[in-house]
Design brief:
alpha/beta; Rossmann fold; 7-stranded mixed β-sheet; 3-stranded antiparallel β-sheet; 12 strands; 31% helix
Length: 281
């Protein structure tokens, strides 16, 4: 572990992170419950939570007839779930092994989708066409150093009238000490442009360890996230904060339906997630 700030070059941080995420693929294939996708009605827990919020904002019952690009799609379980909700999907990720796993799972369960290997910060140049929905969810933008560039990719991928959706871990949560016996701030809420260096051979899901344990993350306060989207020209149409997570951030968290939460006495003290929906006019 660690979390110490460091002035690492983006290319070096990206390579370390990609090596780590490549290593996670076989571990997550075992941990993500992919056999459940043999049931054609099965959706990931993340999409079960996200879909009602997204369709309400769209004014639809499902995603039928919509072109959707899923940024940072990893092994494709959420992407396939979005396809099952009716969307024509394109999954984007920087990990080649993750996309191989995603494509194999899609073929196995009969889900249609396209898969593009690229950094999310270069997505517009790598992905063909434009989209009704740009979607990203859970554990995504902490890996990015430049949110203005990220937001620019989103705008350029959207058609006029298109919708952007993000649900992610709350930056107030990420500032907490995950090992403390009570809610205690330990890490920066406000980023200063430097990465936080982590050395952790485990992953957030399943057993086993990775060969490349070092990763780099960036702190992004809500003001930076919202500011980047607004500066890009997007219009915010929905914002909320949640009390549960789809992974166990701290060993003190207790299991709840489709995720984890702080013990009940602490559940109203700090948000665990935020959701933003924005529109390109």
């Amino acid at each position: 572990m660690s979390g110490d700030a460091t002035d690492i070059h983006w290319d070096d941080a990206r390579q370390a992170n990609r090596d780590n995420w490549d290593d996670r693929v076989p571990l997550h294939q075992s941990a993500y419950g992919i056999d459940a996708f043999d049931d054609p009605a099965h959706l990931s827990d993340v999409v079960v939570d996200d879909l009602p919020v997204l369709t309400r904002a769209l004014g639809t019952n499902d995603l039928s007839g919509l072109d959707l690009v899923h940024l940072q799609c990893h092994i494709g379980t959420d992407t396939i779930s979005l396809a099952r909700a009716g969307a024509t999907v394109t999954g984007v990720d920087f990990s080649r092994p993750a996309l191989v796993a995603a494509e194999a799972l899609a073929a196995r369960v009969g889900a249609e989708g396209s898969w593009v290997e690229t950094d999310v910060l270069d997505a517009r140049a790598a992905v063909s066409g434009d989209f009704d929905v740009v979607y990203t969810s859970i554990g995504t933008i902490c890996w990015l150093n430049d949110l203005d560039r990220w937001a620019t990719q989103i705008v350029q991928l959207l058609r006029p009238g298109g919708t952007f959706f993000i649900r992610d871990g709350h930056p107030a949560l990420y500032a907490l000490d995950e090992d403390a016996p009570q809610l205690t701030a330990r890490y920066p809420y406000f980023g200063d442009g430097r990465a936080q260096r982590w050395d952790d051979a485990s992953t957030y899901a399943g057993d086993g360890v990775v060969a490349h344990a070092r990763t780099y993350e960036w702190a992004h306060p809500l003001s930076e996230i919202l500011g980047a989207l607004l500066r890009s020209g997007l219009r915010i149409v929905h914002f909320d904060e949640g009390r549960t997570l789809p992974w166990r951030f701290s060993s003190r968290m207790v299991e709840v339906p489709r995720g984890y939460a702080w013990p009940e006495a602490e559940r109203d003290l700090v948000p665990c997630t935020y959701t933003i929906i924005a529109r390109r006019d």
